[in-house]
Automatic annotation (TrEMBL):
Name listed for the protein in its UniProt record: 6-phospho-beta-glucosidase
Stated family: Belongs to the glycosyl hydrolase 1 family.
An example molecular function term from Gene Ontology annotations: beta-glucosidase activity
SUPFAM superfamilies: (Trans)glycosidases
Pfam families: Glyco_hydro_1 (PF00232)
């Protein structure tokens, strides 16, 4: 059996707004996440989160204890440039600079995401990604990151989950204008994001030698037809483009997939492509694909659409004659109703390999659960089982030709879930806080963190 390479990047992930806290500390500006109305009043906002802003050194020490080879985190745009464009906040630059140095001191490779759902609120006021001015603002922000951290970062990720941001905007805190043609609006945003990240990829290649790599990080999930009816097969191909391939075909191959363009035309939702945009996009040439994987998606053809009972990750727009997502009775579910499908990770890795032939890194994968702290311990065997089965799937995919070069599970530490609070815990490390009571935010290693330490030490052999 072909084995995982010795330089494989074992680690875990976080995102700035879900983990850092310090939402207005040391000159940070507000992002849309800081001003978001929390719909479920029982759950926490993002103001203090896991208080990483005040615990970062201790957090890196814990990562080093677990033997991390990499740590994938995101930089908060408004900590660097409080208004999104304009003045740079020196204290914000200093925070990440110190964090990066500390990681490198412990030989942990930083894998840095430039944007993870936290649009500066000042830019949201002018329309966010729907406004082309934000393309310029993002490129400017990326240049500030290159100027300040480019000497130390080998792996850059432009955008986290462009597809989720578009398809599930309201869940991740992105408002849509009232009475707009939703499809047209979100695919205009998609086009603007694509142009923005293509410009940043080109700039990265111009500035740095080939040791510095840049890629994008959509949420990719293999799509299964609900049956072997030819209609369901067609639906699965259609939803696969809407859910996955549209965002990668364009940035990797420079082509907008016709399956979705045809739907947009039919729905009177074609977005504007300005002269010169396609040339910019064609020069993107990402060096790798990062992707987040939680579950697969099952699809059927339907005349009437009704998929809104599904949990967030399994829900996508459905259209009569195009397809819609349904639940899969063959799969077990997490406490939060997400389907668990390790085999699907193998399928996804092999599909990515076949379709794009690029190195890939898994930047999120994990299980959200109501962990319990009992007598100072968290016995999260369900998390060990989840991670173990997914790592087994990675090993099988490696053996069958996947060029996967890293696994960064979600998440390194407990953090605030996108819309289900701190009670939906994903971390290897427990954060001792409740939804409304921040307590001391003490860090406690869960059973899974000791197990993962052994996995890393044995390069995935000892599961
Ligand atoms: C991914 C996001 O969609 O899924 C993360 O990149 C998120 O930010 C993760 O936390 C898990 O989703 P949730 O809704 O359980 O927080």
């Amino acid at each position: 059996m072909k084995k995982i390479g010795k330089d494989f990047l074992w680690g875990a992930s976080t995102s700035a707004y879900q983990f850092e806290g310090g939402f207005d500390s040391d000159g940070k500006g507000l992002s849309i996440q800081d001003v978001k109305e929390i719909l479920n009043k029982e759950t926490s906002d993002f103001k203090v989160a896991s208080d990483h802003y005040n615990h970062w050194k201790e957090d890196v020490t814990l990562m080093a204890q677990m033997g991390f080879k990499s740590y994938r985190f995101s930089i908060s745009w408004t900590r660097i440039i409080p208004n999104g464009i304009g003045e740079i906040n020196k204290k914000g630059v200093e925070f990440y600079s110190n964090l990066i140095d500390e990681l490198l001191k412990h030989k942990i490779e930083p894998v840095v995401t430039m944007f993870h759902f936290d649009m500066p609120n000042e830019l949201e006021k002018i329309g966010g990604w729907a406004n082309r001015k934000v393309i310029t603002a993002y490129v400017n922000y990326a240049n500030v990151l290159f100027d300040n951290f480019g000497d130390r970062i080998k792996y850059w990720i432009t955008i986290n989950e462009q597809n989720v941001l578009l398809l599930q905007g309201p869940i991740v805190g992105i408002k849509r204008p009232q009475n707009c043609n939703v499809l047209k609006h979100v695919f205009q945003m998609n086009h603007n994001i694509t142009v923005a990240q293509a410009l940043v990829m080109e700039e990265c290649h111009k500035r740095f030698d080939s040791k510095v790599k840049i890629g994008t990080a959509p949420n990719i999930s293999s799509i299964y037809p609900a049956s072997c009816k030819p209609e369901d097969i067609v639906a699965s191909k259609n939803i696969a483009v809407l859910r996955n391939w549209f965002y990668l075909d364009i940035i990797v191959k420079g082509i907008y997939n016709r399956i979705l363009l045809a739907l947009l035309e039919e729905q009177n939702a074609m977005f504007e492509i300005r002269q010169g945009d396609m040339e910019i996009i064609k020069k993107a040439n990402p060096d790798f694909i990062a992707f987040n994987y939680y579950t697969t998606t099952t699809v059927k053809m339907n005349e009437k659409i009704d998929n809104y009972k599904l949990p967030d990750q399994e829900r996508v727009f459905g259209f009569p004659g195009f397809g819609q997502t349904v639940s899969n009775a063959n799969l077990a579910k997490t406490q939060f109703g997400w389907e668990i499908d390790p085999k699907g990770l193998k399928v996804t890795l092999l599909e990515l390999q076949e379709r794009y032939n690029l190195p890939v890194i898994i930047t999120e994968n994990g299980i959200g659960a109501y962990d319990k702290l009992e007598e100072g311990k968290i016995n999260d065997d369900y998390r060990i089982n989840y991670l173990k089965s997914h790592i087994e799937a990675i090993k099988e995919a490696v053996n069958e030709g996947s060029q996967v070069f890293g696994y960064n599970c979600w998440s390194a530490f407990d953090l605030i879930s996108v819309h289900e609070g701190i009670s939906k815990r994903y971390g290897l490390i427990y954060i001792d806080r409740e939804e409304k009571d921040i307590k001391t935010a003490r860090r406690i290693r869960k059973k899974s963190s000791y197990w993962y330490e052994k996995v890393i030490k044995s390069n995935g052999e000892n599961l």
